[in-house]
Amino acid sequence: MNAVLQTPIDYLKGVGPNRAELLRSELGIHTFQELLHLFPNRYIDRSQYFHINELQRTNAEVQIVGKITHLETVPQKRGKRLVARFEDESGSMELVWFKGHQWIQKGIKLNIPYVVFGKLNWYGNKCSIAHPELELLSDHDQNLQSGMQPVYPSTEKLSSRGVSNRVIRQIMQHLFLEVNGQFEESLPNPIKERLLLIDKNEALLNIHFPKNQNLLAKAQYRLKFEEFFFIQLQLVLKNAHRKQKIKGFQFPVVGDLFHLFYEKHLPFELTNAQKRVLKEIRSDFASKAQMNRLLQGDVGSGKTIVALLAMLMALDNGFQACLVAPTEILAQQHFAGIQELLKPINVSVSLLTGSVKKKERSQIHSDLQDGSLSILIGTHAVFEDTVRFKNLGLAIIDEQHRFGVAQRSKLWKKNAIPPHVLVMTATPIPRTLAMSVYGDLDISVIDELPPGRKVIKTVHRYDSNRLKVFRFLRDEIQKGRQVYVVYPLIKESETMDYKDLMDGYESLSREFPLPDYQISIVHGQMKSEDKEYEMNRFVEGKTQIMVATTVIEVGVNVPNASVMVIESAERFGLSQLHQLRGRVGRGSDQSYCILMSGSKLGDDAKTRLQTMVRTQDGFEIAEVDLKLRGPGNLLGTQQSGALLLQIANIVKDKDILSLARYEAQLLVRNDASMTQKENLSLRKAYDALVKHKNIWKYIS
Ligand code: ADP
Ligand code: MG
User: Fold this and answer.
1) 304 lines ligand 1 (CB under 6 A)
2) Which of 261, 266, 268, 616 to mutate to test the pocket of ligand 1 (most atoms within 8 A of CB)?
3) What are the residue boundaries of the structural domains of the chain, listed by start?
4) Atom 26 in ligand 1: which residue has the minimum CA distance?
5) In sequence order, what DSSP letters do the residues of 1-43 get, joined into one string?
6) Substitution site in 266, 278, 304 for ligand 1 pocket (most atoms within 8 Å of beta carbon)
7) Does ligand 1 come within 6 angstroms of the Cβ of 303?
8) Kind plus residue range of the DSSP H or E element containing 294
């Protein structure tokens, strides 16, 4: 990187100590380099000039060349205003100032051509501009800037202390007078040629001083690509290095247990997506590197069987495996299901959760240590220090909709060589987001549901139609089906939500009275034994209705439940709605999802409900969610650091992102050390970025 660019901004003409301090504290700009990367938010088109007699009410901001012929101060209610008469050959108008009179009066030269720019105010047929931007025509012609005028990010403090957009533009001009043309090209020629990218110098000049629309677009494209490319390069390299450095257990065989189970006891044919993912896992196992794979698959896409088959591969190679679920209920279900599946092949499996009694717990501990226990299923209790494996070879984490990564490394500490790790998530996140946030992991996707799944009929009903909904529920229960009714429980309004839940429960109890109907209720304020008791009554079919808060979101499996009623559905986020709907449609019956809401709905709420009614594709839903909420909200604060981009936008520029990832992968495949001649400048730029930690902080 050019040394000049590391110069502190204090040394730039037009900056000075006060402005330097402001730029540092308000925008985090310390050096020429950082100032250079303060990219405009938008541009004002100043390629057009108007005549005064052409001005229309529809013109918002206008630019006119003319002369100031007269200046006077005019008293008004409070204080006075400064008024200038401004003329061109077509007519005249007023320019007005409400403050800064002396300074302006002194600066203005009469009868000399100025370029005036500003917003028009109309009074009847007359118009004026208040606090216009003024520039001598002679200066204007010499300026770097022309048609498209940049508008830079700013803060209140900056503008109140006089560092206006205009001042920043001036500073930027001084910067370019010092450094223009000195930027070293950072992208390899083959990439530039293939993608028709303009040079770095041209791009930086045109992002700040666009010559025209076309060059501006090219400059933006090149700089966005570059921003994504360097992030992706770092992620892809990190992945490659990890594979090189972190040794994993090699599982050379696909052995007896796997074959026995796969050929004799698999209850159904795997979908193609499941087979593909198993192959991906298998090839990780066969390599000498540690697997670190994220498995995305919608609710019901059949991740569990993939997990089980992967665990059998570990066992076949003499290792233990564990499966960690986010809640006790889910751990129990995994345990019950897997135990059932494994019955015919004699594999030892145990359940470890917070509520396992001490005696049983110590038995599990010792069985794990001497290796007599092959598979451990549990909650986060598995992460506790007292839990030691003889030889844990594979850890599978069923995160459902969590994105936490902190706990994963705890499992690693249990071995000298880390186990292979598979993280399963049921919340599909858009590809672009996955690339940015999990770009250093390998990603597998199950994008196909098992055959024969019926579409869950989804409707939106207003509260005023409740009686009809109840009638429908009664019919379904009559047919022997079960029903969920879910209420929102959102922290800030917990007491109110809790009241809604209890009111709802009471009115349901009246509509569906004992002894004909039995209702379970489950919510977060209950003790876990009570929750479990109520859940089990529903699972066993003893109750027909399950009233719950989002507790059930994380994955109970009751194939006989065919209706999901979501109360105040407008208050749920899209991914939550999608998760909840996934609770039904697990059996062979037609299932339904009824979204209840009040009659007043905001635009976003409408979009969410319409999206749910329109589609059942988790990835499509995730895309809508991303557009509505933005990447930061979608991921939570933890990972949003990944998305602090300077110019690119992962929603709007997703095609550029995909391209950048592809190019980064290609480059790492061909020349990971960047030592080939055409990659030397790239290497230099990359090292400098990493050294100056200019590559976005999240990449730790
Ligand atoms: P999830 O991905 O949500 O964890 P599960 O693994 O619980 O999904 O699978 C949902 C249901 O689909 C289970 O009842 C499972 O037995 C069934 N299933 C999974 N894969 C297949 C398949 N290939 N064919 C038929 N049914 C399948
Ligand atoms: Mg699951």
Assistant:
1) yes
2) 268
3) 48-145, 200-243+648-698, 256-286+302-425, 457-615
4) 450
5) --GGGGSBGGGSTTTHHHHHHHHHHHH---BHHHHHT---SEE
6) 304
7) yes
8) strand 292-297
Q: What is the pLDDT of residue 86?
A: 96
CA 618 to ligand 1 center in whole angstroms: 16
Is the CB of residue 270 below 6 angstroms from any atom belonging to ligand 1? yes
Contact 481, 560 (CB under 8 A): yes
256-286+302-425 in CATH: which number?
3.40.50.300
The answer to whether 99 and 105 are in contact (CB under 8 A) is no
- pLDDT score at 254: 87
**Ligand nearest the Cα atom of residue 325:** 2
What b/e sequence results for 340-365 when a residue is b if at least 16 CB atoms lie within 10 Å of its CB, and e otherwise?
ebbeeeebebbbbbeebeeeebeebb
Quick check: do 48-145 and 256-286+302-425 share a fold?
Answer: no
H helices of 514-636, in order, are 528-539, 574-581, 603-614, 618-635
- Tell whether ligand 1 has an atom less than 6 A from the beta carbon of residue 271: yes
Q: Is the pLDDT of residue 92 over 90?
A: yes
pLDDT tens-digit profile of 413-467? Answer: 656 678 999 989 887 778 777 777 777 778 899 988 888 778 899 999 999 999 9
* pLDDT value of position 406: 44
For the sheet with 482-486, list strands across it.
457-462, 592-597, 561-566, 482-486, 545-548, 519-522
pTM: 0.70
Q: How many residues does the chain have?
A: 700
Each as own residue / partner, the long-range contacts of residues 189-192 (CB below 8 Å, 24 or more positions apart, any chain) are 189/678, 190/678, 191/229, 191/663, 191/667
Residue (of 555, 563, 587) closest to 458 by Cα position: 563
Torsion 203-207-209-213 (CA) sign:
positive
Q: Residue 512 phi/psi, 5° resolution?
A: -125, 75
* 644-697 pLDDT, tens digit each: 788 988 888 989 999 999 999 999 999 999 999 999 999 998 988 887 665 543
DSSP annotation of 373: -
> Is the shortest distance between the CB of 305 and ligand 1 below 6 Å?
yes
Confidence of residue 403 (pLDDT cuts 50, 70, 90): very low
Q: For the structural domain made of 457-615, what CATH number should be given?
A: 3.40.50.300
Q: Is the pLDDT of residue 329 over 50?
A: yes
CB 522 within 8 A of CB 551: yes
Q: Give dist(CA 601, CA 273) in Å, integer.
A: 38
Is the preceding omega at residue 419 within 30 degrees of 0, hence cis?
Answer: no
Rounded CA gap, 504 and 35, in Å? 58
Residue-wise pLDDT tens digits, 94-147? 999 988 777 788 888 999 999 999 989 998 888 999 999 888 988 877 665 567
- Structure confidence at residue 692 (pLDDT): 67
Fold topology of 48-145 = OB fold (Dihydrolipoamide Acetyltransferase, E2P) (2.40.50)
Give the angle subtended at the CA of 57 by the CAs of 52 and 59, to the nearest 5°: 70
On the 0-12 / 13-18 / 19+ scale of CB atoms within 10 A, 644 is exposed
Please report the pLDDT score of residue 188 as a whole number: 96
